[in-house]
Amino acid sequence: MDTSRIRINEERLWGTLMRSGEIGRFGSGGLRRLALSDADKEMRDQFVSWCRDGGCEVAIDRAGNIFARLAGLEDLPPVAVGSHLDTAPAGGRFDGILGVLSGLEIIRTLQDNRIKPKRPIEVVSWTNEEGTRFPYYISGSLVFTRQKSLEWLYALTDDDKVTFGDELRRIGYAGDVPIGAHPFDSYFELHIEQGPILYEANVPVGVVIGGAAVRGVYVIFRGQTAHPGGTPMRRRKNALVGAATFIAAVNDIGWKFAPIGRTTTTRINVWPNKNGTIPSYAEVMVDMRHQDPDETKRMYVETMAAVRQCAQETGVDFEVHGEWQYGGSDVVFDQECIACIRKAAKALNLPTMDIYSQAGHDAYPVSRVAPTAMIFCPCVDGLSHSEAENIIPEQTWPSINVLLQAVLARAER
Amino acid sequence: MDTSRIRINEERLWGTLMRSGEIGRFGSGGLRRLALSDADKEMRDQFVSWCRDGGCEVAIDRAGNIFARLAGLEDLPPVAVGSHLDTAPAGGRFDGILGVLSGLEIIRTLQDNRIKPKRPIEVVSWTNEEGTRFPYYISGSLVFTRQKSLEWLYALTDDDKVTFGDELRRIGYAGDVPIGAHPFDSYFELHIEQGPILYEANVPVGVVIGGAAVRGVYVIFRGQTAHPGGTPMRRRKNALVGAATFIAAVNDIGWKFAPIGRTTTTRINVWPNKNGTIPSYAEVMVDMRHQDPDETKRMYVETMAAVRQCAQETGVDFEVHGEWQYGGSDVVFDQECIACIRKAAKALNLPTMDIYSQAGHDAYPVSRVAPTAMIFCPCVDGLSHSEAENIIPEQTWPSINVLLQAVLARAER
């Protein structure tokens, strides 16, 4: 059978997305579906039910990652397609979700057309990609690829000191598939760009050629509590002033490396943080990104100099409590998989653009254990991690048909 | 009897202070005794028990203010002496406490010497002076003086949404004395300076001649959540950057008006305040003080200009959600009461210094309903609202003997 002419069912996929958009609704049309919350459980249950109805066998590993397999003609490692169903704290309806539900739509489309590829196709939903509630992004895929241990994952805690392990068991998704026992032939991830490049250029398909180099630092400023009335300026050690000066400096560094570079302070916690007392403690989380790892390193060096200078100028102590990095040279997408995407787009007569990912994705760790590629589609104004996140359906379907065709091609390998 | 030669029992007072210093111990020698907490109840119980043992009758009003009365020869309105027993979140052992327990020591000294003045003497412990847990400082004395209503007080909530009224009843200190039914002849408050002036000048007695003019603003910055990776600098509306820039500007204003003026951001709350999302919301509490109300007004005007400018420069919206002011021309201490203090210090051969209070005190509202005066004593390095807050006993007893003699003189009036 000539599979090159089959296309996804757009209305069905839109309906599936809109049903997902009801689970964990938040604010003006957004989602708050934090990992391992009740809403996450409800969405997982819905997803598993859809997959079973679509003829898949569902397996769940010990990290709670879900694998829904449509059997192939041969019992080979599958071509996997996936992303995540959890969201940012004030997230949108498409980030991650579009990648998972496009995988489901591909399964359904194959069933509609009675197509059985040589290899199995698997739709994957990774656990806790966002790292919002349990702070470590892409943790499900990091464990799946053995870059982090299951013990590490289970010991992550949320702000209420509830552990990941307890919550995973509570929602019934601590599965029995052992870590490392589930090989992929290859992995494809479709995702909204979460940036404005494709949207502004009006290009429907982004071929992701790499990931920005991301570095993060977690800095603590320490001063001394004192009375805001009795304490003259010269005698103060105000940790919040140290942190605020640093946050402004971090933002300036982002501008200096713009338009490609960017910096963000996402989080600040202050103590005592009460009226009537000068704060003695402030911790901030800073994130720096550039697609050129050397530039990210320069941003990091400038950020470290800024910590020192801000602390000195404001008379407080500081401590770099943690650092992390990902992306950059750690992400190596597979040329053959990328070629499948380019070829599919060409066959569909669609313009593509080579693009770097600025966000972290499950495809990053997976790229280290299986041939991997990513497709980006435009999102309105490049806005993501926001209730206002949106896609324009007609601008979105082309990329999903590219995914379908790329997966089908790879599955015959 | 010639009462001019009697003195407090220094060792007894020190022992009383050290016993208080065990109730709500926190950190390295400090106290965390938040209003209406279990520790506050324990301290209140201890104080009431001490007062009854000292021969006082104890009355409690509906705001939880405690009045311990030593009867006088005549049934006249009392000379009141007091301060507060609650502390800042990481507070010291003397702020407020010294004023209340000095009052108790005066009662005990009078009993030792079998002195019965013409007027009753009352030791007063005001509820929730700090406003740490239930954010409104000096709220017990504000209600006592009818500048705020009992309904307003009972409706204050802590960060866990527990109401003041429920907690006051829980700890058993919702008394039966109606508001406004308890007149004073006069009110004296002794307090550590909470600033370095007396300590640096090595002067044992500060005669408080006024209160700094304090203004506060509560500002909210609003931006838009977005992805820290995908969102270029030019597209951001980062509320935390708006707030941080403002906090730094507020600090600069403090320096501009130094050494007398001072500004503080005490509190910041950010949302979502999670990794992986640009914050869309930040609220900050700012406090400005100067002993010249015109200068405080200039600081306020500059602060308001800074809010506008910081919001504009960082591309976020702002809203001044609340403003407050106290001190300044609202505080009028009584010249006769002040004369009692000067005369007592002179008789004791003690140098004094006229001084403005930079902190708010219960004496401020009380000054509007009764002749009032305040005495400051030095505290080490001027440090207060800190676990490290300390006094040097020998530098402290002189001011308490001044208080004793001033109160005795006034009580014969």
Protein architecture, described:
The structure is a homodimer of 413-residue chains. By secondary structure, the first copy, chain A, is an alpha/beta fold. The first copy, chain A, folds into 2 domains: 3-204 and 350-411, Zn peptidases (Aminopeptidase, 3-Layer(aba) Sandwich), CATH 3.40.630; 213-326, 2-Layer Sandwich (Alpha-Beta Plaits). Helix content of chain A is 35%, strand content 22%. Chain A contains 12 helices and 14 strands. Chain A has helices spanning 10-20, 38-53, 97-112, 139-144, 150-155, 164-170, 197-201, 239-256, 293-314, 335-347, 363-366, 393-411; strands spanning 25-26, 30-31, 57-60, 66-70, 79-84, 121-126, 186-192, 205-211, 213-222, 262-271, 281-290, 317-327, 352-357, 372-377. In chain A, the strands form 3 sheets. Chain A has an 8-stranded mixed sheet with strand order 3-4-6-5-7-14-8-13. In chain A, strands 10-11-9-12 form a 4-stranded antiparallel sheet, covered by helices on one side. In chain A, strands 1-2 form a two-stranded antiparallel ribbon. In chain A, β1 and β2 (30-31) form a beta hairpin. Chain A is globular and about 80 Å long. The mean pLDDT of chain A is 96. Chains A and B meet through α8, β10 and β11 of A and α8, β10 and β11 of B.
